[in-house]
Amino acid sequence: MIGADVRADATEVLRRCRMPEDEVRWVLTADDPAVIHMILELHRERLEEELAERRMRLQELELVLAAEAAAQRQA
């Protein structure tokens, strides 16, 4: 949540979202709302891609482990 110390709180939020330090600085020093939006939107897209990749890997892992467990039960 963003409180009275906007810069410090924004920095903390962006770091928790694993934004690279260079991009954090760019966001916090930008004087153009369009630039701020662009940087944040690019990071959002990157996070969504990472999440999709992790979900896919977990699904693959579940299928492999479930097949292995089923094979062991039948043995």
Mean pLDDT across the residues is: 93
Write the element-wise H/E pattern from the N-terminal end onward. Answer: HHH
Kindly provide the radius of gyration, computed on alpha-carbon positions and rounded to a whole number of angstroms: 20 Å
Q: How many structural domains in the coordinates?
A: 1
Q: What characteristic shape results from the CA principal axes?
A: elongated
Number of helices: 3
What summary fits the major beta sheet?
none
SS-based class: mainly alpha
Keywords:
75 residues, elongated, 0% strand
Task: Set down the secondary structure blueprint.
Blueprint: H1 6-16, H2 21-29, H3 33-74
Would you give an account of this structure?
- The chain is elongated.
- It is 83% helix and 0% strand.
- It contains 3 helices and no strands.
- It has one domain.
- With 75 residues, the protein is an all-alpha fold.
- The protein has helices spanning 6-16, 21-29, 33-74.
Brief overview, please?
This protein has 75 residues and is mainly alpha-helical. The chain is 83% helix and 0% strand.
